[in-house]
Design brief:
With 558 residues, the chain is an alpha/beta fold. 25% of the residues lie in helices and 26% in strands. The termini are far apart.
């Protein structure tokens, strides 16, 4: 080695020695985004058994066409959820309220224990309380969470009831004395080091649409104020991805369930006022399907009764813990998938138990009460249901109702007596399977005229069934919005006064704008009442051998 080479080698050695470990280390790897799947439902209402629920979906053979298919049922919903969970192990199953309450007989007769057991088996993680969770009061709702047998001894089919394995959330429901929330305000789930906060709430107007005894001793706080106050608390715990499960919603102008065309209602104002740190709002209450962004937040609702599930995908930056991408897809829970065996077993067990109760005699009628409509849109059975609702709420203490309306879509079956003129409780449940509660409100004559015009809002006419004493005329040749002459609207033969107040009874579905009857949302002095099926049974008991009502209350021209 010559002198020059020796000096060169020494210089290289010295340079390498001078380099520290960090100079030679490989570039730091960038952590991959965390992918999380949320699977959401709302307004399940105890519909564990597959019922007569349908959705209009694209035709599989020709996407340019649509077809109506049966949807829902816990046996199929559980399979859909399982299949979605299989796509991403980072998943959470959530519900935006009214999981229970206003339930079909198979669940309602056992105090909704079957629904809790069904959701346990399905793998539900969180349920925000809805207004119907309070139908039977605070203590019964706490029993749903914590378990134990009902005081009337009906229930606990296996000798015990362990309660929900999932968590009820109630951020805006506080004990009036202590100020503490009835259930936790939120829960946090962590995936690959990233935390997601789930805030659960019901609508602040819950006390006005449930039986007063159901909410005694409880305060219902503003949804926006409640959620926004919780944001800093969650952020202190390292949470930057925040999901609100809110039992309040909106109404769209069409049935495109992955859009929000013309959306209106409380959800719009609420979302627009929510803290910018909130990323997703899973909503409910209005039983409407929609999916879009409002105020840079993903806002979804998955129809009703388990007939749809929302598939939500979040991509989260592990360093900032913020959502960098999000998408949602409302999926019809079609029945072309295998039944979930655990759900089938549960349903079969309760069907056997319910049968004796289903067969008890509820009343007698003089002839079949059909769904066959007149040219004006009236059904004999619809008249009876409207009369029963008016009878249940006419007393001053129950609402002082003067008029009752019933949505035609809520009359699910005809009521036919046996050879002895008897009808059973099971038949009444089949006629009105949703267990809706009655709601009485004050409307002006002008508002009554407006809601009558809204019977043509959603394309095909949805002529409400009306109670005895109320009458009006509509003109088929007139354009939508002008079909009813307000001068023709009468109560007990007297034309209504556009500025006067009237007490009106509808079911809770209609009261929240269901079927496009949006003006009911603006009713004042709202009071909750009994379940519709109970009102019908009591009316039949008061009127043995009830005659089929034939006198027309609605007339049509042209």
């Amino acid at each position: 080695m010559n002198l020059c080479n020796g000096l060169l080698m020494a210089s290289i050695a010295l340079a390498l020695t001078a380099c520290n470990d960090s100079d030679l280390a490989a570039p730091e790897a960038v952590a991959a985004p965390v992918e999380v799947k949320l699977i959401a439902i709302n307004d399940f209402h105890g519909n564990i058994e597959a019922g007569a629920i349908t959705l209009t979906v694209p035709d599989a053979s020709d996407p340019s066409k649509t077809t109506k298919v049966p949807v829902g049922g816990a046996e199929y919903l559980a399979t859909w959820v399982k299949n979605l969970k299989a796509k991403n192990s980072n998943n959470v199953v959530v519900s935006a309220g009214d999981l229970i309450g206003a339930s079909p007989m198979i669940s309602a007769l056992y105090h909704d224990e079957p629904t809790i057991e069904s959701m346990n088996a399905l793998g539900l993680d969180f349920n925000a309380v809805g207004n119907h969770e309070f139908d039977d009061g605070r203590e019964e709702l706490l029993r749903m969470q914590n378990g134990g047998c009902h005081a009337d001894k009906v229930g606990c089919a296996d000798g015990k009831f362990d309660g929900a394995k999932f968590k009820f959330l109630a951020a805006n429901v506080q004990d009036s004395k202590t100020g503490k929330t009835l259930f936790p305000a939120y829960q946090i789930k962590e995936f690959q080091g990233v935390k997601i906060g789930f805030i659960g709430m019901t609508l602040k107007g819950t006390p006005g649409i449930v039986t007063p005894s159901g909410v005694v001793g409880l305060d219902f706080k503003d949804e926006v104020e409640t959620a926004n106050k919780l944001v800093p608390e969650l952020q202190k715990q390292g949470v930057e991805t925040i999901v609100v499960l809110l039992h309040e919603g909106g109404v769209t102008v069409d049935k495109k369930y992955n859009e929000c065309n013309g959306i209106s209602g409380p959800i719009v104002d609420i979302v627009n006022k929510l803290d910018k740190a909130i990323d997703v709002v899973v909503s409910g209450h209005t039983h409407q399907p929609y999916n879009c962004k409002i105020n840079d937040k993903l806002v979804t609702s998955a129809y009703q009764y388990g007939g749809m599930v929302t598939d939500i995908d979040l991509t989260i930056d592990p360093k900032t813990r913020n959502v960098i991408k999000m998408s949602a897809n409302n999926l019809a829970v079609t029945r072309d998938v295998p039944k979930d065996a655990a759900q089938t077993s549960l349903i079969e067990k309760f069907l056997k138990l319910v049968t004796p109760l289903k067969d008890r005699v509820a009343g007698t009628i003089a002839g079949p009460l059909t769904k066959t409509a007149t040219a004006a849109g009236e059904m004999p059975l619809g008249r009876v249901i409207a009369d029963a609702q008016l009878d249940a709420t006419a007393d001053k203490s129950n609402g002082a109702s003067q008029i009752s309306f019933m949505n035609p879509g809520g009359v699910r079956a005809e009521l036919g007596p046996d050879a002895a003129a008897k009808v059973t409780y099971g038949q009444l449940f089949t006629v009105q399977p949703f267990g809706n509660t009655l709601v009485t409100m004050t409307l002006t004559g002008e508002q009554i005229d407006k809601v009558l015009e809204q019977q043509w809002n959603a394309g095909a006419a949805k002529i409400m069934q009306v109670s005895a004493g109320f009458s009006y005329i509509w003109d088929k040749s007139k354009p939508d919005g002008s079909k009813v002459d307000i001068a023709s609207i009468k109560l007990n033969g007297v034309a209504i006064d556009p500025k006067a107040n009237y007490r009106v009874t509808v079911n809770n579905f209609m009261a929240t704008g269901g079927d496009g009857y949006l003006e009911f949302v603006n009713g004042k002095s709202v009071l909750g009442g009994p379940q519709d099926v109970d009102a019908l049974e009591n009316y039949l008991k008061k009127n043995p051998m009830l005659a089929v009502p034939k006198a027309e209350r609605i007339s049509v021209l042209n």
